[in-house]
Amino acid sequence: MKLTSPMKIWHQVVESGDMNLLDDILDKDCIFYSPVVFSPQAGKEITKKYLSAAAIVFADESFKYTKEIESAKLACLEFELVLNEIKINGIDIISWNDDGKITEFKVMLRPLQAVELIHKYMGQELK
Q: Thinking of the domain 7-125, which architecture would CATH place it in?
C-alpha cells in the first residue's frame, strides 16, 4: 500500500485559508497539542477548531514556512512570522496514518513573549 501524504492539502489550507479542506485530511481521532494548553485536545472537531483559530491569529503576510522535513508518516515544518513586533519562530509536527489522515498535530513556539501573545489571541478566538 502506498502511503498518501496530507502535506499538499495542508499547504493548500494554509495558502487559501479554506478550513473545509481539513475535513479530508484530519482523522476522526486526531490529537492537537497546543503550545498554550496543557492537555492534548482530542478529536477531529476540536482539532479543526484550534487550527481554524490559529489560521485567524497567524493570518499575517509575514507568515511563512522556512523549512520542511517529511518522511513516510511525519512532517516537521518550521515557520516564522511577526506579530506586534515580536518575531515568532515555531514548528508544526504533523503525523498521519496509512490513509493519509492527520493523527497528531503538535505546535511549538518561541520565544516566551510569542507564547504569551499567541495564548492571548487564541483565547480570544476560541471563546
A: Roll (3.10)
Angle at CA 121, nearest 5°, toward 115 and 124?
A: 140
Those residues with Cβ within 8 angstroms of residue 43's Cβ, 6 or more apart along the chain or in another chain: 28, 29, 30
Domain extent listing, the chain:
7-125
Q: How far apart are CA 23 and CA 38, in angstroms?
A: 25
Q: Tens digit of pLDDT for each residue in 48-80? A: 999 998 888 888 889 999 999 999 899 999 999
Tell me the three cell numbers of residue 113.
Answer: 513573549
